Amino acid sequence: MIICINGKFHKKDKFEISVFDRGLNYGDGIFETIPTFKEKIIFLKEHINRLFEGCNKLYFKLPWDKKAMLNLVNLTFEKNVKFEYGRIRIIVTRGTNKDGASTEDVLQSPPELIIVITENKLPSRVVAEKGLKLMTTKELRPYPEIKTINFIPSVLGQILAKKKGYDDVLFVKENGDVLEGGRFNVFIVKNNILKTASHDVLNGVTAAKTIKMAQKMGFITKKQKVQLDELISADEVFATGTTKRIIPIIKVDNNTIANGKVGPITKQLMIKFSQLFY
Question: What parts of the chain have a pLDDT lower than 50?
């Protein structure tokens, strides 16, 4: 495995990161997970665009422009083993400043860039069609529109969900607004119309591709508020994400969605997505 650190390439056991790195100390960083399929990188430009948007919101001063970042990702991909299904992880932290705790020069810190490629173990067909069981939580991700490396709500949420027999967590506001899953966007289907939350969620790349694909297939799509009772009474519910593609959600808390099986529209989308992309 070859890893890119700040534009230089290292074997996986031949690189160092400062113990004072702000990402390590404070979760002060951002990341992207980009799918690969055999010799091809999927949705690379979309993920790079979102990475730069997030870095701007966090006031990271990147020494690389988008073209240079694309080149580094492609070079890292070329130097590594090609998996049938892989994933590229880009991590950017604010870097190290003085003792790591000082905020005096925090905006002047040179960022730390890491690019690493691993296998992406997608859910098997059996698991994908069996669907997900989600537990709701009101412990929400901070700055949800930015893919920060502070993923404690998602990590702890999944740990607690699995202890109770669920697969993952579903973030729901106090007022009942459904947001997203621990690592995925959520859609409901009602009367052949697809809906997904429009605010306080990550602008998912896979979600955006699914929306465009569904529209071309003749479905109406809407980005708007979705209430929990609306989700529970939906005809179908599904999740989208880099490591899941499209996967049905068949239970939320103690509520079974419809008949508890993958719905016909979700199944169409699952098949079409894998045919078009990966």
Answer: none
